[in-house]
Amino acid sequence: MILKMMRKLLASPLAFLLFATLPTLSGVSRGEETQPDRHWGQWRGPQANGTSATADPPVTWDEDSNVKWKVAIDGRGTSTPIVWGDRVFVLTAIKTDRKDDAIPDPQDQPKTNFFDIKQPNAVHQYVVLCLDRNTGDEVWREMAVVKIPHQGAHNDNDFASASPTTDGKHLICWFGSAGLFCYSLDGDPLWQRDLGEVNVGSSLGEGCSPVLHDEKVVIVRDHAGQSSIEVLDATSGQTLWRKQRDEGNAWATPLITKAAGKTQVITAASNRIRSYDLDSGDIIWQCDGLTGNVTPCPVRLGDHVICMSGYQGYSALALPLDRTGEFTASDHVLWQIDRGTPYIPSPLLYNGLLYFNQSNQNILRCVDAQTGELVFGPERLSDVSNIYASPVGAAGRIYVVGRGGTTMVLKHGRTFEVIAVNQLDERFDASPAVVGDQLILRGSKFLYCIEQ
């Protein structure tokens, strides 16, 4: 009721005078878009490399100390929560008791793939949540769609694994084959699109997150069917261009960056690393050199982009952004690595140092991002289990979150030094967010806000 009254007031001639001196309903005050310490608007943060230049989260915590709030989240989701101002946005998929009796129960279905992943027959609610960053209280929730997933997902995946993204005006929420949805930061539905269903090989599930740049939304869908990249207008949801891709399963979120006079969309996959022109969809350059099931997202270093993969082999490449046409991994690369690279986690690029773990294991390496030379490692992180979450960096510290609930805090620098080891009673697969003096951690059941 209050929200409806406020919306009517916004439409009145007095709205400008009243709200020129007050925060907006979205929780973002005027000029706040210039305050990067207030935002973590996409899954790898404001620089798309896992770092915050202004955040200073706590060093130590446990279930009884430095937990500002802890909130149960219904359903399942491994997408990273994002933050804009005083709002935290989270996606989840809630399995209901309703089912389609025409589809046999999963336990009664025959084995059809290597991982024995079955076709769901339960109705799921695909939900967008907005929480107050200061209290953890729910501000609003929107049920984007209610449907039965067309395909199963690996036990380590789910139906809400793509992180949302925002530019302060549009909140883009991607549930893969269940649809693409855009909201205002107050939860008003702006538009939605059904981009069709995909066929992920071995039913491993979807997971590539959308990217928002210059009011354009980029969606990459690499799977066992016809893969594609599509760019939509963030205001209307209309497709601006769409290109087919010769790729199989991959989950790497693209990097959008301006270089060599163009806005490039860098996509990492097994057949090719490609750079697309954001405006036209034309391929600017492409290169081979990665292994299978590419998942880590690219990061930019000066005039180069670093791409890596760690399934069925190891590979990391530093590629020039000023090239055109096709070239090979053996030509025109700044450096190349063939060991110890990650499968699921993305690397952390922090002030010229590149941190990454081997495969999904608790083995950490740090290399000089300019030369590819090993700075330290391999170091076994004995206090954490295997790792799915991507590391983050802030205030001269590295935060590595293990699946067993342990977070190791390391000193950022050219020597390996453990500062603290922290334990929570949760399983963590989602990558953390760091904003201001807070660390936001999404577990399998709870969302934590860690603050001194």
Please tell me about this protein's structure.
The strands form eight sheets. Strands 1-3-4-5-6 form a five-stranded antiparallel beta sheet, with no helix packed on it. Strands 15-16-17-18-22 form a five-stranded mixed beta sheet, with no helix packed on it. A four-stranded antiparallel beta sheet has the order 2-34-33-32, with no helix packed on it. A hairpin with a 5-residue loop joins strand 5 (122-132) and strand 6. The protein is mainly beta and 452 residues long. 47% of the residues are buried. Helix content is 3%, strand content 40%. The chain contains two helices and 34 strands. It has one domain (33-451): 7 Propeller (Methylamine Dehydrogenase, Chain H), CATH 2.130.10. The chain is globular.
Radius of gyration: 21 Å
Quick one: how many beta strands? 34
Label the overall shape.
globular
So what's the oligomer here? single chain
Mean pLDDT comes to 92
